[in-house]
Amino acid sequence: MDSIEALSAFSALSQSTRLDVFRLLVKVGSQGLPSGEIGERLGVRQNTMSANLTVLLNAGLVRNEREGRTIRYFADFETMRGLLGFLMEDCCGGRPDLCQPVIEEIACIL
Fold this sequence. Notes:
Elements: H1 3-13, H2 16-28, E1 33-34, H3 35-42, H4 46-58, E2 62-67, E3 70-75, H5 77-88, H6 96-106
Antiparallel strand pairs: 1-3, 2-3
Helix pairs in contact: 2-4, 3-4
C-alpha cells in the first residue's frame, strides 16, 4: 500500500458511520452482511447507508457480491492488512519486542 491508498482509506474511515460499518463487517468476517441488514443493525437509513458503502467500496475497504436483488458486503481483509502493514512498516526501530503488544492486540486469537 502506498501513501495515496492509505490516505483514501483513512479518509473513508474518518466518518463515524463508515467506521461503524467497517468495524461491523470486520466483526462478522467472511459471511459479510446484506446492505439492508447493515443499515438495520446500525440504525441508518437506506440511502445514507448506500452512500457510505460506496465511499468504503471506492476506498477498497469493502467488496460486494450481488445475491439476486440483494448486495452483500464484506470487509476487504487484504486492504486492511495492507493498511496495517503501511502503518507498521518501520515500526520499533528494529526492536520487534516493542511491536509484540500491537501484534497481539490485532491477532485473531480464539
